[in-house]
Amino acid sequence: MRINHKDKGFLIILTCMILLYILPIILADRLYIDDILRSQLGYKSWGINGRPLADWVVSVLNLSIDNVTDLSPLPLLVACFVFCTCSMLYFRENLQHLSSYKASIVFFIVFANPFMLENISYKFDVLPMVLSLSVLLLPYSFGLRKEYCTALGSLCVLASLSLYQASITFFCSLALLEFFLSCRSNTQYGDAIGRSFNRLLQFIVGYLAYHFVAKIYIEGEYNQTHSQIIDISMNGLSAAYATAKLFNDKIMSVVYEVPSLIYIILIISALYVVFIAIRGFGKKSLAGYLSVTILLFSPIIVYLLTFIHLSILKYPVITDRVLISFCGFLMFVMVVFYSSIKGKYLTSILMTPIILFTYVYSYTYGNALKYQKEYDVVLSQDISKTILDNDPDSKKIIKIYGTQNSSEQRTNAIRRFPSLETLVPLYYTFGWWGTHMLKMYDIKNTVTGSNDLESACHMHKISSDRRFMAFSNDETILISFESPKCN
Fold first, then answer.
1. What residues contact residue 409 under an 8 Å CB cut-off, 6+ apart?
2. pLDDT tens-place string over residues 342-366
3. Angle at the Cα of 393 (from 388 to 396), degrees rounded to 5?
């Protein structure tokens, strides 16, 4: 594969922008949720979540089949390299009507999806998550014969699902973007529709293949529960609607924080889609009418693809990371926007505040992570000292009640961007990941969460300050972030 001057320009701009974007996350160096236990025990176990390829990818990077270690920020850097490479391949095949600069902005906005910040914050999980997105670009990046294209697309759908399932609707968004680009270039509507049906075939074949893979690998009540589909009934549909509303509200909470120029970009993109669709009215054929219908509804469909696959789950996980497919909507909007306006000055005026926002958001987030980490280190050290002083032989059960305080910097960041509250988690929340954080400070006791604060009234107080209180008896040490109300 020969890289030409245009490709080099694209790669250099995109790589530099992404490295600058991820810098605060690298500097924060906070163990993110699952990282706390993985870094201690060295396990993978993504296969039982239906993600066997994630196990393999992380094992390869670690040069180990069994035990894996914290290699950060290497997995994140490798993930960025793979994303940039796959983006370049897509660019040279589909977006040659855009300059290297404009195309690099498109893919930077895709990567700077606010809902992907959680994904790239994981030290272990980041590589399979970003790979699951990147691999879906490949079927659209080569001008292969139909049968080879079908095989490659099906294989990439299977691979993406085996890496991280939530990314999969990005494939469908790319299919709609491909359809738009075909109609824009005055391709025969029949050919464009035929290609879209082939993409649908690729998706179905890949998904069916994954269905058999998932049956082999998925284990455990938690994983099996969260893979269940809603019942086809009024109750099931009502539940799906309620879930979709939750995800939509989460997206809107971020949209409201973005500079208002985003609405101008959205309007321009929507109008250009309508313009391309109107041209199809001159094609008085079934293919023409069908193409117009698909084009008119494509922006709405691409947006719904962000969370439609999550809404049909009976017990969905409502977190930012599962909205990774929002990348598809951002890519669709950005490609349509840049395709509609040739003048670089107008596009620069409209895009500069948006690009600046992504950096402000990322750096605010990264520093909130850093300061919360520093707060947690001091808190964990003080809790562990209290435990060790009271129970040097590690015989008592440690119970944690309530939720710890937030660092002042995290609180300030949330005042600026309320959507960051869930992105910068508090680990001492009725135990949760705080139970494993204490293990980092020589605590050998059994540690668990507790919902019983009343028991503190029958225990001896061994420590008390503004951050936590500690109570003890012969069997238990209770760490509480709330004061008990004893008679």
1. 367, 368, 370, 371, 372
2. 877 888 889 999 999 999 999 999 9
3. 80
